[in-house]
Amino acid sequence: NAGVTQTPKFQVLKTGQSMTLQCAQDMNHNSMYWYRQDPGMGLRLIYYSASEGTTDKGEVPNGYNVSRLNKREFSLRLESAAPSQTSVYFCASSGSSGFSYEQYFGPGTRLTVT
Amino acid sequence: RKEVEQDPGPFNVPEGATVAFNCTYSNSASQSFFWYRQDCRKEPKLLMSVYSSGNEDGRFTAQLNRASQYISLLIRDSKLSDSATYLCVVTPGVRANNLFFGTGTRLTVIP
After folding, report:
1. CA distance B90 to B62
2. What are phi and psi of B15, to 5 degrees?
C-alpha cells in the first residue's frame, strides 16, 4: 500500500515550458487535491476533485489545469510555466467528498522555473 | 487579514518541557479544525483533529475556543522527535471548496 505517490520529485523548467505533475493514490479515496507550498504562505489549494469526473478551482487556480483521469489519478498541468510557479507541489487525497476528513499527502514535487 | 494565523516561532524548548501553540482563525462559521505535523522537506501528516470538547492523545492536547476563534495545541514532556513544524488547518464547512492552512509554527526540542 503506497498511499499517495507523486512524480517527478524534482523538476527544473524554463519560463514558457509546459509539464504535467502526476499523482496517484491506492486508498480508494473519492477526493483528491493539489496544493502549493511557498515560504511564509502556507499550503494553498490549487484545484480539487470531490469525486471521479468532477474538478473545482481552489484558492490559486490561475496558470494551472487539472485532469481526474480515473478514481486513482489526478494530474496537474502547467501550460506555460512562470517563475512565480516555483514552489513545492503536494497532492493529497481523502476518503470523503467533504473536507472534514483526514487528508493524506504525497511526498511532493519541488519545481523551479527559471 | 489571513484566514488562519500562527506564530511562526521558532520555539526552542528543552527535552521534557511543556510547550503550547495557538492559532487564530478569521471565519466565525468555520466548522472543522486540525493540527498537522510537517517534518523538514516532508509532506504534512495529520496529528489530531480538534473537537469542540477538546481532545487528548497521549502527550498532545488540542482545544478549541469558538468565542475567541482560536485553537491550541499543548505538548507535554517534549521529546526530540517532536521537533517539526505544526500546521493549523481550518475548513469553512463540511463541503466548502477551500481548506486553509496556517504557515506553521516551528518547534525544536533541544537535548
Report:
1. 14
2. -50, 140
**CA–CA distance, B48 with B36 (Å, rounded to integer):** 7
Beta strands in A1-114 (DSSP E): 4-7, 10-13, 19-25, 31-38, 42-49, 56-57, 64-68, 74-78, 87-94, 103-105, 109-113
Q: Which residues of A touch B98 (CB under 8 A)?
A: 45, 58-59, 99
Tell how strand B105-110 and strand B11-14 pair up: parallel
What confidence tens digit (pLDDT) does each residue in B28-39 have? 888 889 999 999
Residue A98 Cα, gap to closest chain B Cα (Å): 4
Backbone angles phi, psi at A37, to 5 degrees: -125, 120
Separation between Cα atoms, residue B91 and residue B89, nearest integer Å: 7
CA–CA gap between residue A99 and residue B100 (Å, rounded):
11
Q: With an 8 Å Cβ cutoff, are A107 and B42 in contact?
A: yes
Could you read off the pLDDT of A19-51 as tens digits, one per residue? Answer: 999 999 999 998 899 999 998 888 999 999 988
Instruction: Give A106 to chain B, closest Cα distance, Å.
Output: 6
